[in-house]
Write a structure and sequence with these properties.
By secondary structure, the chain is mainly alpha-helical. The protein has helices at about 1-10, 25-30, 40-55, 65-70, 90-95, 105-110, 115-125, 135-150, 170-175, 185-190, 200-215, 235-240, 245-265, 270-280, 290-295, 295-305, 310-325, 330-360, 370-390, 395-415, 430-465, 465-505, 510-530, 535-555, 575-599, and strands at about 30-35, 35-40, 55-60, 60, 85, 105, 160-165, 185, 225, 235. The chain has a two-stranded antiparallel ribbon with strand order 1-2. Strands 3-4 form a two-stranded antiparallel ribbon. Helix 20 crosses helix 21.
Length: about 600
């Protein structure tokens, strides 16, 4: 590690030729094992850049093209603004002028590496639950720097290095090395290891450097070589030093070496030929299960490139804009455009979910990111159903607002990296994911739509006196809350059955279980109060808004507790957001109720 960091800090002295590679289509499809999942290299690159910078691209470069630069021409990336530091105080503490875009270059952080390492080591000694946001941010930045450093040396074995200098003509002849060259690469020497004699002082020194390099670059993070040893996947360095005797591993490594050299020379044809041959050869090392996963790579690449949820957000926003414009004109054009925009956004929303289901071979509800997308899709569907029966903008507005808001929240969680993660052990059941989790999240969606309709009724009551409009919104809210009650009740019971099968008890008063029960009880309370004539339309609207607040707590507010058997997928740093949201809702309810009573 020390050698890696030392080379990283002074890497500016090593540079390679400018690349001339135009076609990365084969390179993008190379399988990589990362965080327990086999994925195309393009996905690995997007996740890496998202982890570093919060974006899945760098300027006008695609992620895989930038990653190729990091692999094969790392000196060209030291001035790329890829490291996101959210807290400007951290930048100042490192002696760096805070930037408006909050992104900094590797060279800027290299200059302050020692100071950053000291702060990180101090933060690491603090128990995780006691760390401040700034300390967690410092550790995140430090981890990204280390990862960048390690990845920048993933293929340094392919390039001539001063540690492998051989000047003796006789030795070069003996090892069959080019006579007009003095510096050689690690792999050049390893390929001739059987010809090396330790009686030669020059070769003895070179052999010692081989061993030192093999120790310095152990356990590298880019595991891209499927090994014959226990079905493990290895980084190129680990494959080179532990499995090079395997003929298939050697072929794959030599193809990586060809890619590295051809990239440096700017030889597009040679680079793509090596990448294409690699794709063909690596198939022989994959298990049947891995081959099935690799067959889905074209779909995953299309999913990543098409960004379906970005298109959905755009169309949902347009739908709301057309609604606002409709106040200036009663022409049916704006209504038709609004309805078209919601449908146009719903199509990629559904297709995006379907692609995720096919890629991961499971329902898309295993993480907060996925549940926000799924709940958003169900909310938009309910909005379209409302509009089908209402035809007075109510469903369009509901769909546009809920779809936009939930997808924007999902984007926040996508900034953490890979959104197509393998399941945690507690969720590893497609049957229960497709029944309990899907049902309860649909209940979340219906309750949120009911809450949004409650907002709309309150706003209508403040600004409009048309009792027919208010009555339609009221009845629609009542119907949606009925759907929400059924779904959450069913989903909670299915969760109890799953808990009984997995943990041997139906109910344990776990925070997550209590959150689901709160939704059921609150919604049931509203219906009981209505039947008993304790509340009318105003009370129901207020109760629906409060119901959405209950969902926010049950959905991810309980995650702040970090306790219970459901303690998976928990997040930190959202307490402030929840408090702000709750405060906004309270102010909204007080203000609208005040104005309604004044009328």
């Amino acid at each position: 590690m020390k050698i890696i960091l030392a080379l990283f800090l002074f890497f500016g002295g090593t540079a390679f030729a400018q690349p001339g590679i135009k076609d990365f289509s084969n390179f993008k499809r190379i399988p990589v094992l990362d965080n327990g999942r086999l994925k195309p290299l393009d996905t690995f690159a997007r996740n890496l850049l998202t982890q570093f910078s919060g974006k899945d691209h760098y300027d006008d470069k695609e992620a895989s093209i930038w990653l190729a630069s990091l692999f094969f021409d790392p000196a060209s990336t030291v001035n790329d603004k890829i490291f996101l530091i959210n807290d400007p105080d951290i930048a100042q503490a490192l002696g760096i002028t805070p930037q408006q875009d909050r992104r900094y270059t590797p060279s800027q952080l290299q200059q302050n590496y020692s100071h950053l390492a000291d702060i990180e080591q101090a933060a690491e000694k603090i128990p995780e639950k006691e760390r401040s946001l700034a300390e967690n941010e410092m550790m995140r930045v430090f981890g990204n720097i280390i990862l960048y450093a390690e990845l920048s040396h993933s293929f340094s074995f392919a390039y001539p290095q001063s540690d492998f200098t051989i000047r003796s003509s006789a030795t070069k002849t003996k090892l069959d090395l080019p006579p007009d060259q003095d510096q050689f690469s690690f792999i050049d020497i390893v390929l001739r290891a059987n010809k090396i004699s330790l009686d030669d002082p020059e070769l003895a020194r070179t052999t010692a450097n081989l061993f030192r390099w093999s120790q310095d670059y152990k356990d590298m993070p880019f595991t891209v070589i499927p090994s014959g040893q226990n079905k493990n996947w290895l980084s190129p360095w680990d494959a080179l030093t532990t499995d090079f005797g395997n003929g298939q591993t050697r072929r794959l490594l030599m193809l990586w070496d060809n890619m590295a050299i051809s990239y440096t020379r700017g030889d597009d044809a040679a680079f793509n030929r090596a990448a294409h041959l690699y794709l063909n050869n690596v198939q022989y090392s994959l298990s049947k299960e891995d081959i099935k996963k690799a067959d889905k790579f074209p779909l995953e690449l299309f999913y990543q490139a098409s960004s379906p949820f970005t298109w959905s957000i755009m169309f949902y926003i347009f739908a709301f804009i057309f609604f606002v414009v409709s106040f200036t004109s009663s022409k049916p054009l704006w209504y038709n455009l609004g309805l078209f925009s919601v449908v146009a956004g719903f199509i990629p929303h559904v297709l995006g979910l379907l692609m995720r289901i096919i890629i991961m071979a499971r329902p898309p509800v295993s993480s907060l990111y996925e549940t926000f997308i799924f709940v958003g899709c169900i909310a938009v569907f309910l909005g379209l159903m409302i509009e089908y029966y209402n035809r007075q903008w109510l469903g369009i507005v509901t769909a546009a607002i809920s779809g936009t808001a939930l997808l924007f929240i999902a984007n926040k969680y996508s900034a953490e990296g890979d959104t197509l993660k393998v399941l945690v052990a507690v969720l590893n059941s497609n049957f229960w994911l497709a029944t309990h989790v899907t049902t309860i999240t649909m209940g979340y969606a219906a309750t949120c739509v009911g809450g949004l309709l409650g907002h709309i009724w309150l706003v209508q009551a403040v600004f409009r006196k048309d009792s027919q409009v208010l009555d339609k919104t009221y009845k629609t809210t009542l119907g949606i809350l009925g759907v929400a009650l059924c779904l959450t009740f069913l989903g909670t019971n299915l969760g109890g059955i799953w808990a009984d099968q997995s943990w041997g008890r139906f109910w344990g008063w776990d925070p997550k279980e209590n959150g689901a029960l709160m939704i059921v009880l609150w919604t049931a309370l509203l219906f009981h109060a209505k039947v008993a004539n304790m509340i009318g339309p105003l009370g129901l609207a207020i109760g629906a808004v409060i119901g959405m607040m209950v969902v926010m707590w049950a959905w991810f507010g309980v995650n702040l507790l970090s306790v219970g058997l459901h303690s998976y997928g928990f997040t930190s740093g959202i307490a402030a957001s929840l408090i702000i949201y709750a405060a906004f809702e309270i102010v909204f309810l007080l203000a609208t109720t005040f104005f309604i009573y004044r009328k």
